[in-house]
């Protein structure tokens, strides 16, 4: 798979490039600002763009705005945002139109090399990767009652699910069997009045709708 | 040589500065008396009013206001000049700067002139020149007379020797009486010294009280100065925290992430390592990640970047999301408050929530931040056991109260036994 990276901190950029190259990605371009990123995406049409939220010249949300442009103009390029802290509004903006091929992770997750590479691969393939902290923060925001009906365990499962994990991933994380996870998920759907869906990413869509990121 | 040094020490020391003080007293005499003709005129005019009423009515109506108004007007003109003269006297002769009373209202227009007339400062000055002045003139005169008498008497033998052998000096001659007079003169010198010192102290005190700012003014000025300097200190501390946060983020944090990435790569790519080496790399990788987490916590405690970039709403939901209990955060702010107020609100909420988790055994908590007029209202409520006490042991609460007080906010914590606990903070913020 082919990737570009936009990150103004040289050290972190080198780190991400190393991780992605080790994971078998082909790095087409490495840039340090949003303008360079858009030019690189236009030129290389990569499978995924890994983008820092805060970049020169303004150091505010240049990366988010560039990501929105990429999402609209280059539909075959997935976007993974890297951020120093969680700003759920960015995640909401990014996820609003379409939840496939999107990710939002804290920068420190790059250090977990394998998991980070896995997340990039998942997003590049059209999946989703949300940082656990993003999910937690979205849950804080979403204070409607259906959530209170969930058991703590179901809540945990829901959070992992919202992070884009598969059933086996959730099972491994919680150290339970996959069938137990499936049971929990069914229970969640029942409690939240969500209809059963066949494709995996529609499950995520349903979760995000519940989180209040996407209003149906 | 030794003898002269000794003499200078013993005789000279008490008289050090006496010249300047005496000059101050001497200069005071004309200054204090300068306005006396005016007062006499005014007093005379007042006394003359009954006599003037004998004049034809029209003329009396014209003359009486004139003879009274004129000295009053002159007084208003002369008073500031005299005050300037007095200030110069103290500055030039004893190096003392009398503090100026506050002039309310800027500029030299009519309103400020009226304000000066109706202000108390001017009337205190008039009081100084009119009442204290003549009194001090008398005292000045007395002290100067003591000096003159002391000098003449102490140097009697010089006169006897220098003056032609006629008159009272010759009559005295070199008699025992002359010895007494000389001794008396020397004693008078020391008395003059004491009197001058006392008079200078008295005059200075009176000038400070009547020509300087009043106590209220001084306090008001001091409060304004303190408030300003406190704001400056708080802002500087806040700016410093933000700078440290930036430095840590741009430097140590990036470097640690890079280190952790490299260690992670080493772990996953070097397949044929001996078990020991793999263990060491694993350990190092874990520690690097822990260091990143600790540094993040530290930065959050200093001044989180999210607070500066995105404001209270984003920063507080970040705090809430990291807690083990569900916390509802509602922030309603049309405009962002000042960075200092924002920082205080942020730390109040984050500390209060930490307390909730640690002590309250609460199942959930609610945070609301809203702006009511010029007040930022912050409420943190939980459904826990209550019983939090500001006085006993609750150092966290006391710290919060102090931090709130530093920006003139109010802090209250209602926590009856059995709960719930509600922490309410009001922070003033400019519109």
From TrEMBL, chain A:
The modification 4-aspartylphosphate is found at residue 52. Residues 143-214 form the HTH luxR-type domain. CDD domains: LuxR_C_like (cd06170), REC_NarL-like (cd17535). SUPFAM superfamilies: C-terminal effector domain of the bipartite response regulators, CheY-like. Keywords: DNA-binding, Phosphoprotein, Transcription, Transcription regulation. Residues 2-122 form the Response regulatory domain. GO terms for biological process: phosphorelay signal transduction system; regulation of DNA-templated transcription. The keyword Translocase does not apply. PROSITE patterns: HTH_LUXR_2, RESPONSE_REGULATORY. GO terms for molecular function: DNA binding. PANTHER family: TRANSCRIPTIONAL REGULATORY PROTEIN NARL-RELATED (PTHR43214:SF24), TWO-COMPONENT RESPONSE REGULATOR (PTHR43214). This is Two component transcriptional regulator, LuxR family. It comes from Actinacidiphila paucisporea. The lineage of its organism: Bacteria, Bacillati, Actinomycetota, Actinomycetes, Kitasatosporales.
UniProtKB/TrEMBL annotation, chain B:
The keyword Phosphoprotein applies. SUPFAM superfamilies: ATPase domain of HSP90 chaperone/DNA topoisomerase II/histidine kinase (SSF55874). It catalyses: ATP + protein L-histidine = ADP + protein N-phospho-L-histidine. GO terms for cellular component: membrane. GO terms for molecular function: ATP binding; phosphorelay sensor kinase activity; protein dimerization activity. Its EC number is 2.7.13.3. SMART domains: HATPase_c. It comes from the Bacteria. The chain crosses the membrane at residues 21-42, 54-82, 126-159, 179-200. InterPro entries: HATPase_C_sf, HATPase_dom, Put_sensor_dom, Sensor_HK_TwoCompSys, Sig_transdc_His_kin_sub3_dim/P. Keywords: ATP-binding, Kinase, Membrane, Nucleotide-binding, Phosphoprotein, Transferase, Transmembrane, Transmembrane helix, Two-component regulatory system. Residues 340-431 form the Histidine kinase/HSP90-like ATPase domain. Pfam families: HATPase_c (PF02518), HisKA_3 (PF07730), Sensor (PF13796). The keyword Ligase does not apply. CDD domains: HATPase_UhpB-NarQ-NarX-like. It is an enzyme of class 2 (transferase). This is histidine kinase.
